[in-house]
């Protein structure tokens, strides 16, 4: 294996530990992938505790999902990763987790509005919610790919979140921003009314996003 792949696998293990430590996943939940060539990506295995993952547990697969390196079986939610890489060449990493407050929002049928916080407008833009479907199916994967054509993050109803980025760190940052946004929404709602940023402020931030 190349030095680059060694480096990427070590980073993936660190991010998995961080996902667990931050409470974004428990048990065998969640999955992470990083693209290393147009049709090659490293992905986490199914059935492993992500807080205790080792670099050698990761799998190298192609965009059809065939395993090229590794002993375990790829995540059962691999189809959503593949759909995203197929749809968007700018995506270098995908993080799927079950952040508690953002997920609870979907259970309560609230949308996550980025317009509550400046950072969320700039980093995330719109955060679509994808209606619930069986997580492992190709159809669900296509729905996620379609919903995220221009999005850096999406919520999966009664399930969790998907965030993407040019790099793994970016995809992880986007997940943290999603959960922070959900926390602030929840706290504000507990305190009283929820006031989004004024439209002019949102527009100015959006201009920053496209700059
Ligand atoms: Zn899941």
Description of the molecule:
The chain is α+β, with helices and mostly antiparallel strands and 211 residues long. The chain has a single domain (3-209), classed as Class II aldolase/adducin N-terminal domain (L-fuculose-1-phosphate Aldolase). It contains seven helices and eight strands, in the order αββββαβααβαββαα. It has helices at 3-21, 78-87, 100-107, 118-123, 138-147, 168-191, 199-210; strands spanning 31-37, 40-43, 59-62, 67-69, 93-97, 129-130, 153-156, 160-165. It has an eight-stranded mixed β-sheet with strand order 4-3-2-1-5-8-7-6, sandwiched between helices. The longest helix is centred in the last third of the chain and has 24 residues, at 168-191. The protein is globular, with a radius of gyration of 17 Å. It starts with a helix and ends with a helix. The mean pLDDT is 96. Zinc ion is lined by residues 77, 96, 98, 135, 159-160.
